[in-house]
Structure formats: C-alpha cells, structure tokens
Amino acid sequence: MPALPDLVRAAPGLWLQRAAVWAALGETLDARADRLGRDGAAALPANWSGADAERARTAHTELRRRLRADAEAAARAAEVLGRHAGEVLEVQRQLVAAARAVRYPFYADLMTGTVLRVPGGPWAISLQTVAAAGMLALHAVVAARFARAVEAAVGVAARSDAATAAALRSLIPGGGETAGAGDPPVGPAAVRTWWADLSPDERDQLVRSRPQLVGGTDGIPVADRDRANRIRLDAERVQLRGLAARRRSTGDVDGASRAEAALAGLDAVAGRRDAGGAFLLDVAAGTGSGRVVLAVGDPERAAHVVTHVPGTAAGWASVPLDLRRVEATRDAARDAAAADDDVAAVLWTGYDAPTSLPDAGYGGSAAAGADALREFQEGLRAGHHGPVHLTVVGHSYGSTVTGRAAGPGVAADDVVFVGSPGAGVRHASELGLPADRVWATSAPGDPISRVPGPGLFGTSRGLHESGLAYGGNPASPAFGGRVFGSDPAVDDAHAGARAPASAGADAATKESLDSTHGGYWDPGTRSLRTLGKIVAGVTG
Amino acid sequence: MRRPETGDGGAEVRADPDLLDAAADVLAAIGDDLGADAAVRGSLPVPGFRAGYAADVFETALAAALRTHAARARSGAGALRSTAHAWRVADAEAAAAFGTAAVTPGGTAAVTPGGDGG
Predict the structure, then answer these.
(1) For site-directed labelling of A357, which of A40, A76, A327, A383 has its Cα 20 to 30 A away?
(2) Where is the stretch described as Disordered (chain A) (predicted)?
C-alpha cells in the first residue's frame, strides 16, 4: 500500500507512457495476426493438403490465436494502467490543492503530511501571549484539516493501486505462469539456490519491487540485499523525519527527540554504507527500537566473520555506539589475523531488543531473536565463498539471545559471552560447540553479574537452577567455557545508553553499571585484544 | 528424406513448394518482428505501489510470451521450408524413377493414390 511519500514521489506520467506503449503493441500484435492469415502473406497455401498441411495449419491457427489474445491483453492492460495513472494524478492534484489551502503563517509539508509554522512568523511572539495561544489553536485546526485531506488521498491511491494490481495480474499472458519469481523457499541454503536460478531480470525486478523480501531474507547474496535495503533505509529515514516533525509540531518534545535519535542512527548507517566496504543486510522498524543488520567488510569472502549481538535498548538510536564496537572488534581481529585473512564484522540487531533487563523476560525477545540469529548465521555459512570462521559475540542481553540461538548444528565456530546476565542455558555443553570454543568475560566491576535471578529459569531444555537473571553464568568456571579477563575503563561515556536497569539496583550499582558494563571495547583493553584473537581464530 | 504422404482414407496430398517457401519467408519475418516486439520492457516499479510491481510483472510476462511466439514463428518457417524441400526432392526422385520429370521446376506436384502421378 502506498504511503504518502510514495504517493508524492509517484510519476503517473511514466505509467501513461507505458500504457501508450502497451496500447501500440496491442495494435501491432493484431496486425501481425492479420498478416499471418492473409493470402499472399504468411497464410499457408490453400492448395496444400495432407497430414503435414493439417498440422501446420493447426500450429498456424494457434499462433494467430495467441497473438490475438496477447494483443487484447496488452490493450486492456494499457487501459487499466492508464486509468490508474489518471487516478493517481487526480489524487496528487487534490493533495497539492490541500497543501495550497494552508496559508501563512503555516505551510504544509507534502512529504510528511504535517503542517508547520513559518519560521519568524507570529511565533516569534512569546508563547505566553493570548495571540500565540490563538495561533496554537488555529494550527491544530489547519493541521487536522490537512491530515484529513492526506488520509483521503492516500486511501484513494491505495484502493486504485490494489484494484490495478489485481487487474494486471489477471491479464498476465499464460495465466501468470511467467508472473515472476514467487516467494522464496524456507532456509538460507534453499533460498540461495532459488535466487541463483532466477534470471537477472527477475532478480532486479524483485530488488526494486519487493525490497522487504529481498532485503530481509537470509541466503540472498549480500550485494542484492544491500541494494534492496538501501531502498528501505531511505523510506525509513523519510518516515522518521516526518515523525519527528509531527511530534515537534504537536509539542511532544520527548517523542520528537526519540525520533531524531533514531534518525541519527539510520543516518549513521547510511554514512557507513556509503563510505564503502559495508553491506546493509536488514533494516526494519520491528516492534521495538528498530532492527538493523550492517556488515562491515564482505561477509561472503572474508576469512573470519564476527556477528556482534547487542543487548537491551539496542536499536536504531544505538547504532553509532554499536557500530563503534563492531569496528573496534574488526580492527582488533585484523591486527591479530594472518596477513592474508580479511575480517568482516556484522552489527546484528536483527531482533526487537527489550528496553531493559526486567522487561526482557525469557519468552519474547530472546526466543524470537535466537531463531532469527540462528537463521542469519546459517545464511552466512551458506552464502560464503569457501570455508569461513564464524564467531558470535553477544553482549549483555545479546549474550542471552546468543546462548539461546546456539545449540547442535549452529553455524558458529566460536561463541563469546560478554557482560552476560545469563547464557540461557545451564552449561557450555548445551551450546553445540566444543567447550574450548565457548568464551566469556565479565569485568570485576560489572554489576551485570549481580543482577538477581529467579531460583529457577526456564529454557527450551527445561527448568534449571539459576546462576544469573537469565541462566547460567558463562563467566563462571562451573559453566564449562573459557573465561578471559577484562579491565574495562570506568569512564565510558556511552555505557549509560546501554545499561540494563536492574529492578533492585540502588543508585551506586546503577552508576557502576553505567561506567563499566560498556567498557569491553575500549581501546587497549584486554577484553578487546582477546576478542580480536578469538575472532581471528588465533587463540590456540 | 521425406516423401509425399497419402492422407487418411486415401485423400489427395498436394503441395506447391514455391508457395510454401513464400509463406515461410513471411512467417520468418513475422518471427523477427515479434522478437523485436519483445523489447517492450521499460517500466520501473514505484516503491510502495503494488501496481508498479504488477505492471513490471505483466510486461515481463508479455515480453516472454512474445519471445515464445517469435520462436514458434521462426520454427514454423523452418518447417515450411523443410516441407517444400522434401516435396521437391521427392518429386525429383519420382521423376527419376519414371525416367522423366513429372513436373516442371516450381510447378505443382500432386499424387492421387492409385492414380497417375503428375
């Protein structure tokens, strides 16, 4: 269904051009069918008889029939598309008329559907004045009227769009047998094969017309996903700009700030992608703070690929911070890796991260995130050109997601739990990896290891005694993995944004959490150096 | 080599190779034209509009159908030429068997079961 920016950007004139081409083609095909049957042209000689003549006439007649049918389909499709173009043009005209009806001191933003105040207008007067209060009321009236016009226009366009799409589908030559690629099969390996079997035209068509499908499906090559996700990224940024503007215009300062922070995160994604050497593998609003999967380096060719899974409060707004950690991990791994080995690092916020640890729970975020992470890892393995060393690093609640994703058959060679509130399993042996490929660190001052947990915790493998809030403590020797030391800096200015709020934490604990829980990637720390070695596969 | 066949029930089997060749030429030209018609692709789906995608799918399918038609037309033209050639060869062989040409080159050959050739 088209949204307002889609409607504003639409170019019905181009559709009219296509309709004209189809109409002309319909006439041409009719003429060709005529020529097939005309004496002295391609018509079969009347005095030709025999079994061969009969068969030839049958084939000739069938070709003429199909040409006539396709001529009619082209003509009808031209009519359908032309009508749709006319309806969209009319809706655009109505939108412009509604926008023009918004008068000074306001103006309408067609891309966002909002009514804004002209800078320097009567708003310069103190808002405490009666005049300003009156202007606020007037603004509300004007904004509501414009919003109704926008809603009506989008509704008409959506109905026309749906009807046109259905009509065009019904006219597809051959009854839709060649209607396109359809939906992908289940599983990254099958998706990879399905995608490879499509023609270049079909692939290109899917990228442009179904970017959600292409961009969000594990197993599709990263270059194609990146192209599709760029379309989605641009759309999300437009929507966020509109959202921020609407909230500002209605006085929702906090809401506007949140939208602007999310927009800044997506701007950072766009900036990193455009800088080169990065692939955007997913971006979606989801039901939380926003999902994003961004690979720095080429995950299909690098010898080592690390997936960084952030925890609570991760989303679009946290991209600048998360991306710094991803880049730091990659740099550390490149320092440790063999000279010929390249490293790709993926920021994987492919799940709806909870806003805080107490909000997280077992059933929701971790379970859904674990399934998505497991499939993503399978896609990395299936899509890689040759052997690859895969590592998953889960931080904070992201480590819980990582633990739940792991298990027999998981596409990971090493798993690392950093500042974990619990691995989601009781023991390293449940992760589907050799115990010496399971790693964990928890800084001495990180209060995450003191977040109280229930007496029992439930996993898909049953109920177990709790070590931490969300399962066994992977940084405990009893867990069975390899524990490495950390000395996170205490002045991490960004830690607060990532800090999970323990329900019972006192102020001192909260401060300590803020200062240490996010310091594992600080330059020069033992934790970062060890992470680099693990990712580079040089730990011995 | 293909010989003139008798139809079911002994019906007359007749052909004019020159007319078959002429029809083949036109059919081949139509095939080429249809191939050119298949270059119809050109629309760009507009993000958010399912109709844009449907239009693209329609155009892709139409182009594929036209390519198929073009191939059938060319194949038909080739079959007509083969038929004309077979008739000529058969006629020449029959003429050789009789020791004289049954028809003048380019003329009409006709065989009636149980009757006289030529």
Answers:
(1) A327
(2) 491-521
d(CA A429, CA A435): 6
Q: Does B58 touch chain A (CB under 8 A)?
A: yes
Contacts B14 to A, Cβ<8 Å = 47-50
Q: Which of A106, A101, A102 has its CA nearest to residue A116?
A: A106
For residue A390, the Cα-to-chain-centroid distance in whole angstroms is 22
Residue A113 falls in which region: left (phi positive, over 0), alpha (psi -120 to 50) or beta? left
Q: What is the nearest CA distance from A18 to chain B, expressed in angstroms?
A: 6
Asked whether the beta carbons of A208 and B45 are under 8 A apart, the reply is: yes
Mean local confidence (pLDDT), A285-302: 90
Chain A closest-CA separation from residue B114 CA (Å): 16
Instruction: Give long-range contacts, CB 8 A cutoff, 24+ apart: A196-199.
Output: none
This complex has an ipTM of 0.75
* Nearest-CB residue to A174 (from B48, B50, B61): B61
Mean pLDDT of the region A119-147: 69
Inter-chain Cβ pairs, chain A and chain B, closer than 8 A? 184
What pLDDT does residue A267 have? 96
* B15 chain-A contacts, CB cut-off 8 A: 45, 47-50, 52-53
Q: Which of A9, A43, A51 sits opposite B7 (nearest CB)?
A: A51
Q: Among A268-272, A326-330, B84-88, which is the least confidently predicted range?
A: B84-88
Edge to edge, what strands does the sheet with A278-284 contain?
A: A278-284, A291-296, A343-349, A304-309, A389-395, A414-418, A438-441, A482-483
> Chain B contacts of A158, Cβ < 8 Å?
none
> Do B13 and A49 make contact, defined as CB atoms within 8 angstroms?
yes
Q: Where are the alpha helices (DSSP H) in B38-116?
A: 50-98
Residues A161, B51 contacting (CB under 8 angstroms): yes
Nearest chain A alpha carbon to B61: A178
| pLDDT tens sequence across A309-319 | 998 889 999 99
DSSP state of A448: G
Does the pTM surpass 0.80? The reply is no
Model pLDDT for residues A158-190, shown as the tens digit of each residue? 889 888 888 888 888 864 433 345 667 777 888
Q: Is A194 helix (H, G, I), strand (E, B) or coil?
A: helix
Confidence of residue B39 (pLDDT cuts 50, 70, 90): confident
**pLDDT above 60: residue A147:** yes
User: Which of these, A495, A173, A505, A458, lies nearest to A310 by C-alpha position?
Assistant: A495
pLDDT of B116 > 60? The answer is no
Sequence-separated (6 or more) residues with CB below 8 Å from residue A216: A225, A282, A284
B14 at interface of A, judged by CB pairs closer than 8 A: yes
Question: To the nearest whole angstrom, how far is the Cα of B23 from the nearest Cα of chain A?
Answer: 4
CB contact under 8 A, A3 and B48: yes
- A90-117: pLDDT as tens digits: 999 999 999 999 988 888 988 888 888 8
Looking from the CA of B85 toward its CB, the CA atoms found within 13 Å total 8
> Are the Cβ atoms of B62 and A173 closer than 8 angstroms?
yes
